[in-house]
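A common beginner's mistake is to predict each chain separately and then try to dock the pieces by hand. The better habit, illustrated here, is to supply every component at once so that their relative placement is modeled jointly.
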Amino acid sequence: MSWERCTLCLSTKVLNKQGTAYMEYMKGRLPVCYDCCAITDRRDMILDGKATMYLNWNGDGTKSVSNWPCSLKIRCFSQSTSRNNWNCERTDVWFTGPDGHVWWGFHVGGSHQLINVRRIKEIV
Ligand SMILES: [Zn+2]
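With all components supplied together, the output reads:
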């Protein structure tokens, strides 16, 4: 059994079978637990006004955006799907960000989940 200590909250957690109980913190290559990932990703969204997230297809037809370990997950309140100039499916989503503003992003293509999202001026 393998244990690791989170760099931020110093809690010790056992790694699961896949070894994915922790992710590497991108900037310092330090282990950070999923709970702390949610906190830092949320803070970075508020500070930066933009983020690279993952688009999730919910079972009920709605969509949500999340961080990599899915510890921060936000349901989109609106979505639209269209075809772009290259005949790829484009999905636009809108959701309420952690700062209370409306956030928007769009995803193109079906082979990946990455979506760049940004804050827009409108407040919910
Ligand atoms: Zn932690």
